[in-house]
Design a protein that fits this description.
This protein is an alpha/beta fold and about 250 residues long. It contains 7 helices and 12 strands.
């Protein structure tokens, strides 16, 4: 197994227009690790996720992003996805007329460079859905059209299961989920944990972490990582709130 960190973020600064949002982020994710990034609204968590995926609305003004040892700071979003980065959105969009299985076929072909037949892809998807306990009819529905919030999030877990990314970034995937959907998403994440894959879970609250145990927890405020530790940090946050960390900053 490679000893090169899966993700290294070094003194990363980024802005939207004239507003600096990321103010010197340092973070390392190794293979096989689950990292939780926790912070209040407006702290820059979702901006960090977007910058890691190469969103064109944000400009990196300093620092660098290394993925599997390669500098991807200036790489296009599709190039990053093809390398094995995956972002589960907070609010997944509808794509009318494109079924879940059609979307996955194109995405997997881009990711692997292999042109899968519909049958080959369907077998892969059915296997993944079986592992995740999902109904087989789900694959033929139009992507996110008419999906409940929980179904949209489960669909993104299915995408991870099929695409097998090296690093899955989950941007507030627990937002708006009832307890059953939350457990389904957590079980999906736990199923996909492997020695080669890393997770960066971005969240406001501890509730997802009751079902997914992180190796590292980072408190993110004012565009930077304020402090890092183990799962005890999440418990401290639950007890003290973000004000306790602000006072000690």
């Amino acid at each position: 197994m490679s000893t090169t960190p899966l993700l290294q973020i070094k003194n990363l600064r980024a802005a939207a227009g004239d507003i600096e949002i990321l103010k010197g982020v340092d973070l390392t994710v190794d293979r096989g690790e689950i990292h939780a990034l926790m912070g209040p609204n407006g702290s820059g968590k979702s901006t960090l996720a977007s910058v890691l995926m190469g969103h064109p609305d944000y400009e990196v003004t300093a620092g660098e992003i290394l993925f599997d040892g390669e500098d991807i700071t200036g790489a296009a979003a599709d190039a990053r996805a093809n390398m094995g980065l995956f972002l589960a959105f907070q609010y997944p969009e509808e794509i009318p007329g494109v079924s879940v299985i059609q979307f996955l076929r194109q995405a997997l072909s881009n990711r692997t460079g292999t042109d899968y037949t519909v049958l080959e892809l369907r077998l892969k998807v059915m296997e993944a859905m079986g592992q995740l306990g999902m109904e087989s009819s789900f694959a033929d529905r139009y992507l996110n059209e008419g999906f409940s919030g929980g179904e949209r999030k489960r669909n993104e877990v299915l995408q991870m299961a099929v695409l097998q990314p090296l690093l899955a970034i989950m941007d507030e995937t627990d937002s708006g989920l009832d307890i059953d959907a939350l457990k389904t998403v957590a079980e999906g994440v736990n199923t996909l944990v492997s020695p080669e894959r890393g997770f960066l879970i971005i969240t406001h609250y501890q509730r997802l972490l009751d079902y997914v145990t992180p190796d590292h927890v980072h408190i993110f405020m004012d565009g930077r990582v304020l402090t890092s530790g183990g799962s005890e940090l999440a418990a401290q946050l639950e007890a003290e709130g973000y004000d306790g960390f602000r006072q000690n900053a």
